[in-house]
Amino acid sequence: MTVFEIEAAPLPEVVTSLAESMRRHYPTSRALLIPLLMECQKHYGWISPEVAMGVAKLLDVPYGEVQSCISFYTMLHTKPTGRYIIGVCRTLNCALEGALELLHHFEHKYGVEATEVTADGNFMAYEVECLCDCHNAPSIQWLKAGQGAGNQTEFKPYWVNNVTLELFDRILDELSGKIKTPEGFDPLAERLVRIVEKENPPDNRRWCWLVTTNCQYPVVVEQKDGEFHVDDGYGKLAGLKERNPFLWKEIQEGLRK
Ligand code: FES
Fold first, then answer.
1. Domains (range + CATH), the chain
2. Is the CB–ligand 1 distance for residue 47 below 6 Å?
């Protein structure tokens, strides 16, 4: 298809009203390109040539410029992406901690290449640059498509870090229903990766590193009423039993071993 054959798609109201409300805050209409393209992607799940042409017309910028912007930013997708977009960080820390092995495992498991959607329509994985969680490498960003108002496809972000190959594989199987999960369990919510006993604790209490898919907590462990209580000193784990009973249970079982 040549550029002359591309018909501009009528853009949804959410995009046109965003353009109108933001226009006065920016010196040129070109400066609105990224926010509008992101909004289109949220709405459609990806950006077709027709939608790109619609944005070009709305902002009165050349179509080629819109496409240059789309092709520069890897988070803008030019084809349908499946229910989950998996962004595997390829930058140094994560590469050293095995991020690309995770991606290769994914490709092998589903018989696809990076950026291709799996046959079941569930996943599309690709390499991304630093996700700014380098101390929890390897780091993966998952975007989960959902249905908003009308036809909207909104993407909810999750970060799943410190992940091992076994856990990555398990999460994929849980999300695709190959492994059954308990009612209310979200495979992408924070979960335990490992517990490491501190080798040189500062006092005679039990000190551990709790490594989860979100963080690495240095904690003091105390046993009360048959339960393990973990305190990281900042209260980040306060109320965990109510907030995330699945992680709480994993921690209880891990500390009991
Ligand atoms: S290097 Fe992977 S999050 Fe920064």
1. 3-72 (1.10.10), 84-175 (3.40.30.10), 192-256 (no CATH)
2. no
